[in-house]
Write a structure and sequence with these properties.
single chain; about 350 residues; four-stranded parallel β-sheet; 13 helices; elongated
């Protein structure tokens, strides 16, 4: 804080650049926000018109390099610049070699080859073609948990907290249990519950190309089909979301980086229909000990009616609490069956 104050009042100039590298180092998360707020205030104050027009403007521009989701969460997207290292292709330069007729023709030993070298490239989020409503939505979404997506090359977007809690456990103890290298890749990914189904603003930020690159190397989106909400023969809402997202990716030449995985009903219904009704009942009754009859009645239905009944049961169930309890059972159960769509999402994230 003292250093920032001193830097803001160094010798007068038209414009002073104040460069700060990783201010989050050794700072409590709340102090990170306080430091950023101080720097922002000093920069804004510096643009106040001076009473004396003969003195330097004294404008201050602050540039902060950070790996902290806490800091990026407090900055409007128009002020964020994503930086990454890109390995450029090798370039070979050969010089002509002239020899006398009496000399043997041999390859010239001084041919120069410049090997590939990494270079830094940037994506200013202000340059991404986002409509104002989408940008406002992104600014609201990029809180301290969701802003982590800017720091991971592999991103998994899910609808809610239950999926975000369960998918890592399912990957570790079942899907990737015997694949340690894939599990390491999986653990390096960023998992973001968006608390809804509006994935498009996120996908635009992650897949839009600028300066020859994009933020996400792999983007996997897992969403519910919500078959219960439409009449027979109509397209599932989840399928419509998939079509829109794939169209967006294609428009930005990023189709190979995106996988959208859609189930038929909802998370809880899919877990039951995969053969996990016993453990699901156990966890449900731990939260609703007087509701065994309700559970049994719901399970006695079949197909669409069962899915709808199960979803109705969970309307009054805290999904985060349920997912925590279920995660404990999954970690100790060798017989838990992972629904196909979740397996596909996990494998797509590490491919």
């Amino acid at each position: 804080m003292v250093l920032a104050w001193v830097a803001a009042y160094i010798s007068p100039a038209e414009l002073t650049l104040f460069l700060v590298e990783e201010p989050e180092a050794h700072l409590h998360p709340q102090l990170q926000a306080a430091v950023l707020n101080f720097l922002d205030e000093r920069a804004r104050t510096s643009f106040t018109p001076k009473n004396d027009s003969t003195v330097p403007a004294g404008h201050l521009q602050v540039i902060v390099a950070t790996h902290s989701p806490n800091l990026s969460a407090w900055v409007p997207s128009k002020n964020l610049v994503f930086v990454r290292s890109v390995l450029t292709k090798p370039k070979i330069a050969a010089t002509a070699h002239q020899v006398l007729d009496t000399e043997p023709t041999i390859p010239h030993p001084s041919t120069e080859q410049r090997l590939a070298r990494p270079e830094s490239r940037t994506i200013p989020l202000a340059k991404l073609a986002l409509a104002d409503p989408d940008r406002r939505k992104i600014d609201r979404y990029l809180d301290v948990t969701k802003s982590a997506l800017l720091f991971g090359g592999r991103v998994l977007l899910v609808e809610g907290i239950a999926e975000a809690l369960l998918v890592p456990v399912l990957a570790k103890y079942h899907v990737l249990r015997d694949k340690p290298s894939d599990l390491r890749v999986f653990r390096s990914a960023v998992f973001v519950p968006i608390d809804g189904v509006d994935f498009l603003p996120y996908a635009k930020v992650l897949l839009t190309s600028h300066n020859g690159m994009r933020i996400a190397d792999r983007l996997v989106i897992m969403t519910d089909g919500d078959k219960h909400s439409v009449k027979e023969g109509q397209d599932l809402p989840g399928v419509k979301r998939k079509t829109a997202l794939e169209s967006l990716a294609s428009m930005h030449h990023a189709a190979s980086a995106l996988d959208v995985i859609v189930n038929t009903y909802s998370l809880e219904a899919e877990l039951v229909s995969s053969g996990n009704d016993a453990v699901m009942k156990e966890v449900y009754l731990a939260l609703h000990p007087q509701s065994q009859d309700k559970w049994d009645t719901a399970i006695s239905n079949s197909s669409d009616n069962q899915a709808l009944s199960i979803q109705t049961l969970f309307h009054s169930t805290p999904k985060g609490d349920f997912a925590h309890l279920l995660a404990e059972r999954i970690a100790t159960s060798a017989s838990f069956v992972v629904p196909d769509y979740i397996q596909l999402a996990i494998k797509a994230l590490v491919k």
